[in-house]
Write a structure and sequence with these properties.
Mean pLDDT is 80; it is low at 199-204. The strands form three sheets. Strands 1-3-2 form a three-stranded antiparallel sheet, with helices on one face. A three-stranded mixed sheet has the order 6-7-8, covered by helices on one side. It is flat. Helix content is 70%, strand content 7%. The chain is mainly α and 514 residues long. The termini are far apart.
């Protein structure tokens, strides 16, 4: 056992020795490897340091070169600016020198002007003294004062120029009249050509057809109760005479007459004719007619493109459908005047919309002239003001018959369009008695002027030709007489459109040879 232990000990010592030697060798190897790594790292670090130094030097050289280039450019800019400043200084010096020269010239001119002004003042004073001396000498020689002499001179000049002034006035008036007539005809012709509407006159008699004469007895009723109830409910008169197949309805109010006509047609169609049925149908027809009238007013406003009208104005406008003037339907006449006024307003640079509004509403008073006092122009103007229309519209309604001084352009246009619509061939019908009476009134009015020998109304009363005595009137007096006749016709007579006045003055020379 001892031997085994010794062996183990010796073996352990041997192993330890081998391990110690191996460890020592490993340590030496690691140390040498570490020294190699360190030396290699130091060489690499030195190389990197050298490369960094080189790069920094190259970068510094590049930046220095860039800075040098920028400095050179800045120096060039500075030198250029210096040259420009030097040139500007030279120009300023030259201008300053020119200003000095100008100032010296201005001062010299002012001195000369002052001297001239003094010389002029001296000349004026001398002229005033000479004029005063001459006036004193003239007054001494003539024995007249300055006021009397001036009056005599002006009177002599006025007498010399009176004839020439009158002739010039006549020439200028004729030229202005011709120019204005040509322009007015052009505007009217353009408006009439652009608007073409039906203008046939309407028959104003309201008649109701009946199927047989037996119906007349049913309309009259027992002891006339049916016809009395009908006339009381409608406010019209019913004429049942011997005319076969016709019953005539008459009344002052055209709307009531239309209601009565429609109600009677319904009664004849229904067949049940008695007082209670009559009252019922008349009420229904009244309501239907109110709606129909408002619809007619709305359609007229829509046709003429007039917006924003009060409902009451639309109602009055629709009632014009049942009014006639010289058998011309007033609503169609108003629509035609609206279009003509709008077109003429656009031709002269005014508002076409306002012109159509004035034209459409100019005869509105005819729908209510039986309800209010006054003529239809005043009634229409009052209604238009009451329901919010502008002053141009109200003035057009008030003055479209030239009853007042016209100071609004739309009123003139409405008056012209109203005359055009009324004077169209076939637009209005007048009786023979009225036609002859109008011609006689026109001729008798003209014959009342002094110096008038004969007067002839021609062209259906739209022109009057006047023969004057050449011994009593000269050309200037004839021109004045023509104007007075036209003014009297305008103030005293009622006529559609316009009347042309032509004054003829003839001088006859007769000699007899013996």
């Amino acid at each position: 056992m001892i031997g085994g232990l010794i062996g183990l000990i010796l073996g352990g010592l041997g192993a330890w020795g081998v391990a110690h030697v191996s460890a020592r060798r490993s340590a030496l190897t690691a140390r040498s490897l570490a020294e190699q790594i360190i030396s290699s790292a130091e060489r690499e670090a030195q190389t990197i340091r050298m490369q960094g130094d080189l790069q920094s030097k190259a970068e510094s050289l590049r930046r220095r070169a860039e800075l040098d280039a920028e400095i050179d450019a800045s120096r060039k800019d500075l030198r250029e600016q210096e040259r420009r400043l030097e040139k500007r200084d030279d120009l300023l010096d030259q201008r300053f020198e020119l200003l000095n020269v100008k100032e010296r010239e201005i001062e010299a001119a002012q001195h000369r002007q002052t001297a001239q002004q003094e010389e002029i003042e001296k000349t004026r004073d001398q002229a005033r003294r000479i004029k005063s001396d001459q006036l004193d000498e003239l007054q001494r020689i003539s024995g007249l004062g300055s006021v009397v002499a001036r009056a005599l001179l002006l009177s002599r000049i006025e007498n010399d120029l009176r004839v020439e002034i009158g002739g010039r006035i006549l020439r200028h008036e004729e030229m202005i009249r011709e120019t204005s007539q040509v322009k007015a005809r052009e505007i009217l012709s353009i408006a009439i050509q652009r608007y073409a509407a039906s203008h046939t006159a309407e028959v104003t008699v309201s008649t109701v057809d009946i199927p047989n004469d037996e119906m007349k007895g049913r309309i009259i009723g027992r002891e006339g109760r049916n016809i009395r109830a009908f006339e009381k409910a409608t406010g019209v008169d019913v004429i049942v005479d011997d005319t076969p197949g016709v019953v005539v309805v008459t009344g002052f109010d055209s709307v009531r007459r239309e209601i009565a006509k429609v109600s009677l047609e319904k009664l004849i169609q229904d067949g049940r004719i008695h007082p209670s049925r009559i009252e019922e149908l008349v009420r229904e027809t009244q309501d239907e007619m109110d709606e129909h009238i408002l619809k007619l007013g709305q359609e007229a406003a829509r046709e003429t493109e007039v917006v924003g009208l009060h409902d009451k104005l639309l109602d009055y406008l629709g009632r014009l459908k049942f009014r006639t003037s010289y058998s011309q339907n007033v609503l169609r006449h108003s629509i035609e005047v609206a279009f003509l006024t709008g077109m003429m307003a656009e031709e002269i640079g005014l508002s076409g919309a306002l012109g159509r509004r004035c034209g459409l509403l100019h005869d509105l008073g005819k729908a209510a002239d039986h309800e209010m006092e006054g003529g239809h122009p005043a009634v229409g103007a009052e209604l238009l003001r009451r329901y919010g229309e502008g002053p141009e519209v109200a003035h057009a309604a008030l003055g479209h018959h030239d009853d007042l001084r016209v100071d609004a352009p739309y009123t003139v246009l409405v008056a012209a369009a109203d005359a055009v619509s009324a004077s169209r061939p076939g637009a209005r019908r007048a009786t023979l008695e009225k036609y002859v009476r109008r011609l006689e009134e026109l001729e008798s009015l003209v014959l009342g002027f002094p110096g008038v020998e004969q007067a002839y109304a021609v062209q259906a009363g739209r022109e009057v030709r006047v023969m004057v005595d050449s011994q009593q009137l000269d050309d200037a007096s004839a021109a004045a007489l023509c104007r007075e006749i036209a003014q009297s016709i305008q103030n005293q007579l009622t006529y559609p459109g316009e009347v042309k006045v032509t004054v003829l003055r003839e001088t006859r020379c007769v000699e007899i040879a013996r």
